[in-house]
Amino acid sequence: MGATSILPFLFLLFLSLILIFFTTSWHPSQLSLNCSQYSSWCTSKNRIQAKVASLVVENQQEGQRHLDHLTETPRHPLDPLTLQEIEKVQTILSSYLPFTSSFPSINTVYLYEPDKSLVWNWNKGDPLPPRQAFVIAYMDQKSHVLVVDLGSSQVVSHVLNPHLGFPILITEDMESAVKIPFKDARFNKSIMDRGVKLSDVICGPLAAGWYGPNEEGRRLVKVECFSNQGTVNFYMRPIEGLIVTVDVDKKEV
């Protein structure tokens, strides 16, 4: 009696599994079922598939909007500078009189935040406060600190860095620092005396910093070197006992 009463339950369970299989196996990109040829459940299935497909399209469109940095515009007073705004900063500085003869290296560019009271009083839909950029540039061994107003296309503040230290290294500085040791005869001799081929040597500017009062006022980088002979993981083969101090401005060891 017990075995007979459980058979209808097993039959219904089997039908449910088949229904779930056919419902979930149909991809949203496939054509909808023809409800005149299939069972009555296909109407609901088509409605679900259409909704899922619509959500997929909306998510793709939303992702494309976020990835299109060329047309991105700020929506909040504290939104970071957009790509267009950064390019405008470069254009403004290119025509700025102190930089017309020689353009400096731009080490830092970010939003110069508006006064806090302007942010507190701003509501969604209001015009944004004036957008300005904070810039640190380096030229002629001097650090220039500037504020650029994007609305008026003017440099509204420009002072030489009154503090100790230098701006961060940029890519060009690091690329130059790792090439300078190979122009020094002492470095080349030291490498060859170790039985290492110069063609197998890779160097990296691993430590920029301040190295004592005798080196005050100079942009120095400690360069460490490695051998990549027979391996792609050259960090496992440091050239021991050899650290090169490079003057990035004078481009010498």
TrEMBL record:
Alphabetical keyword list? Copper, Metal-binding, Oxidoreductase, Signal, TPQ
Q: Per the database record, which ranges form the Copper amine oxidase N2-terminal domain?
A: 76-157
As to how many cofactors bind and how, the note says: Contains 1 topaquinone per subunit.
Report if keyword Signal is assigned. Answer: yes
Which coenzymes or cofactors are required?
A: Cu cation
Q: Where is the Copper amine oxidase N3-terminal domain?
A: 167-253
Kindly list the biological process annotations in GO that this record carries: amine metabolic process
Q: What is known about its processing and modification?
A: Topaquinone (TPQ) is generated by copper-dependent autoxidation of a specific tyrosyl residue.
Picking any one GO molecular function of the record gives: primary methylamine oxidase activity
**Family annotation (InterPro entries):** Cu_amine_oxidase, Cu_amine_oxidase_N-reg, Cu_amine_oxidase_N2, Cu_amine_oxidase_N3
What Enzyme Commission number(s) apply to this enzyme?
1.4.3.-
Q: Look at the named UniProt entry and state the broad enzyme category this protein falls under.
A: oxidoreductase
What residue stretch is flagged as signal peptide? 1-25
Similarity remark: Belongs to the copper/topaquinone oxidase family.
Protein's UniProt name: Amine oxidase
Can you name the source organism?
Thalictrum thalictroides (Rue-anemone)
